[in-house]
Amino acid sequence: MHRSITRTYLKHYANVHNGVDELMPLTGAQRRFHHSRSTDPHGRAQILPVFLEFPPGLLSAHRLEQAARSVLLRHPALRGAADTAGGVPVLRIDPLPDSPIVREITAPDTERALWAALDHWPTGLGSFRVLLARDERRDLLAIGFDHLICDGESTGLVLDELMSAYHSPAHEPDSGSATALRRYREAVEQQLDREHEASGPEALEHWTARVRDAGPGLWGTGMYEPGPSASVWQHVTLSGPAALRPFPAVLAGCHEALARTAGAAPVAYTWGGQDGAGVVGCFINTVLAHPQHDGIRESWLEDLEFIDTPFDEVVRAARACQAPWTGHLDLVLTLIDRTRRPAPTLEGEPGRFLYVSGHRAHEPVVVSALHDGEELSLRIDHDPAIVPGAAATALADALRDSLADSGQDAR
């Protein structure tokens, strides 16, 4: 009888849980990020940042503090920190901190100082970081999320709630925290049940077929210390179905661009299932895309049937069939939908999303697709120590060409 990794993990978790409400099991996606952190020489978290610029002097640190506390009460996972109990990876939910959540930064180079503060934030201080820097030109708000807790969809939800609480501060009752913790546990347990069910023979046969001929990977297959990223940008005007639903076209473009080089690992992307919508910290997964014979748009639809299979289960299946690929990722795709979540407005003043360079490259290549109406901005972040600039530029150009061709095909 097949024993899923999820079921085995939950058995070990049960031995250390001992009824402690604040000790949560990790989902499959969280286990992957926990493993990645264990291979970082400094044990650093992978940070998902949001940078917002407002007119100078607009933001109140006190109101931001109250709003951040409201969000932390509503979403206990944001108070969580990855930990181990008896050798078992867990998420430990801490109480609301006594110390301030919002930190004000003063430095000549505010952007560099904000990134440094986000990057060196101790991992034991929770998964939600709020920083404010001011100068004579602007107020710059930086919100950092531990990727072990949040995907892009969750960051948008938290930002909406943070801005709503900033506008209309409301007291969160103490009983609300216990209710939120209970709701989070139920959501995580339901997710783990789905992951176990999605780890049966049919799912593993599907993913084995997907990865059987995948390459071992191109860049950073050995141990290395992630360094500052470099970025290449492309801008594409979308038309036809891609303007409303760009993800399949972008995914296909990433695959076609990467597949031009022999030995490439499958494209990976983060996926937020709908069942966990509204609960931060339980529904991200890392999914692979590597078609055999059909185009990726067709194969991706088939993959959706097995979308809850945890990443570690797919890796085990690949190793069992002695595939060259053993879990390494060359390229990770994430889609950010600005169409549904524009930059917030405070005190009648519209904010502006910023991209601030200089963060660590968590994977060799990360493609961030920012969708805003018919416009798509593609940012290809790469670690120049292991990915040559010419290779990143070639990927960017191939992506642009693929998306342009998909627009022509739709006409």
TrEMBL record:
Ranges annotated as spanning the membrane: none
Domain Condensation intervals: 23-212
Domain of life: Bacteria
Name the record gives this protein: Condensation domain-containing protein
Organism: Streptomyces venetus
Lineage, opening ranks: Bacteria, Bacillati, Actinomycetota, Actinomycetes, Kitasatosporales
